[in-house]
Amino acid sequence: MALFTDGEVSSIEDLRGYDTQLLDVASIEGIDVTRKLLLARDEIAAEVETMLRRVAWYRVPLDSSRVVVTPPLKLWHTYLTLEMVYRDAYRSQLNDRYAGKRDEFQEMARWAHDRVVQNGLGIANDPIGRGSSPTVQACGGALPDGTYYVAASWTNAAGEEGMPSTPATIQLAGSSFSARAAAAPANAKGWNLYAGSGPQGLTLQNASPLGLTGTWVQPDTISRGGRAAGTGQEPDYLLAVPRLIQRG
Asked: What is the pTM for the complete model shown?
């Protein structure tokens, strides 16, 4: 699972899974869905920070950098974004169909918010953020010619792995590639490298985490036996949070 501060909580594709007409409506009404994703994240961030402050009096103070995106939190973000889209669409046209969609997703957002409150916020003891795309360059070797995608992820002292980076790409002909990690966060102890011939289905290439300053030189094959690139670390525990009064 990704950390809340990693960036993307849910994607446009997640939204389309709940509303197939989303992009058509957004195009007709001139709504920037990417912007709505960010606004919904900001709104949830404000509520999450309030939740954390309300429990700080009896626990070590926490902030959103340690919050993990659990399934209920992701649903909250998805539904809230959809509510925002249809709220704008209704304001533009005063169309009852848009109002119905707005109200439907508002109720779904409230339901997901309640699941977060009931289940608790996912908290990581030693949060390790999303990796940065590695620096990749051609080197001696004999990988099959073509385009390769290479991603990196950080590991912490417990061996927990953060969310892999956006893949870097390299076009090869009669060579292999080497990769170096970007500047590491303070709590990183190593990094992993994932590679493949497409942006999906990247697999782990190294047998154990690499040193922070280490360079990976890809052998003449892409290992398919490693695990697939994951989505980040699991929460160490669920933090009970107070119930907040939802806007309405």
From this structure: 0.87
Q: Over the stretch 200-240, which tens digit does the pLDDT of each residue have?
A: 999 999 999 999 999 999 999 999 989 999 889 999 999 98
Compute the distance between CA of residue 44 and CA of residue 64 in angstroms, rounded to an integer: 10
| Gap between the terminal Cα atoms of the chain | 30
Are the C-beta atoms of residues 206 and 216 closer than 8 Å to each other?
A: yes
Residue 146 pLDDT class (50, 70, 90 cuts): very high
Nearest Cα to Cα of residue 84 among 150, 23, 33: 33
Residue 24 falls in which region: left (phi positive, over 0), alpha (psi -120 to 50) or beta: alpha
Closest C-alpha to 148, from 239, 221, 228:
221
Domain boundaries, the chain: 4-127, 135-217
Q: What is d(CA 148, CA 154) in angstroms, rounded to the nearest whole number?
A: 20
Which helix (DSSP H) or strand (DSSP E) does residue 156 occupy? none
Which H helix or E strand runs over 223? none
